[in-house]
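Subgroup meeting minutes
Present: P.N., E.W., G.H.
Scribe: E.W.

1. P.N. recapped why we're keeping a running log of single-chain structure predictions: easier to compare across weeks, and new members can see raw inputs and outputs side by side.
2. G.H. added today's entry (322 aa).
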Amino acid sequence: MKILASAGTEDVAMVYVAELSDGNLVEFVESVQPPIPREKKWVLLVSTLYGCPVGCSMCDAGGYYQGKPSTEDILAQIDYMVRQRFPDGKIPCEQFKIQFARMGEPALNMSVLDVLEELPRRYQAPGLMPSVSTIAPAKRERFFERLLEIKKALYPDGHFQFQFSIHTTDLSRRDQMIPIHKWSFSEMAAYGRRFYASGDRKITLNFALAQDAPVDPAILLAHFDPEIFLIKITPLNPTYKARESGLTSYVRASLPEEEYDVIQTLRQAGYQVLLSIGALEENLIGSNCGQYIKRHRSAAEPITDGYTYCLEERPLSSEEQI
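Output recorded in log:
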């Protein structure tokens, strides 16, 4: 793997652009969450596909698809970030979170599962916590069944984070935002009940919430038990795809959570609700969910509230090749 370029600041997030062994390009990210120090929480985001065939209406990583990285190519992304800071593979962070969420729907690549099996062998990391976020594409039962087996065997007692990305309870709007054949809410809920065990983290239902995207607690309660599922509300990050789709974020960083009626309504329905707003500088770096620097570099009309950091071209050296 060759590192071609990077953008960001180590105090918040760094995005790396790399060429993998087959000549394809990927992006991956390391981040912290100020004021939490890296020793407390360190987050890596890796790409699981070359592009993405789904084309969600808020995600810049869609629009083209060139295949699947191998197990070793996914591990190479993680290795690069780990070896820069912990060359011996001993990672003392209290929470070492690896999200399979930079580019690509992870359930479309079985190599993600091989990576999950390899991680505990590869690193000495007592705080290791993989995170898989999925739109639950249909006909991927083999992936999800094996994922369940791996979680039970290797990541019990809260050491795994699993998330369904839903974005709205309106089924027609959901189909517009996630234009692929996918599990119904009933199918998601049934799998979640099997996935969840005593001591686990609750399964997250994620809503990157756009204006006029309904979140109806009655629909959620009909499927998702608040004892098993929690709700996460996030901003709709500034992306070219969101602009093209005419989407604007319901969440604004300037508003406290008590100002959001949907949060209060969901809590009254019995759900644990998290309002998750990261450092706004991540939007400027281009490291947030849905952002993709390659898309920015090809844009004819740049957006003004994201991707403002200069992408630094990196000279190729043997030290930066894995």
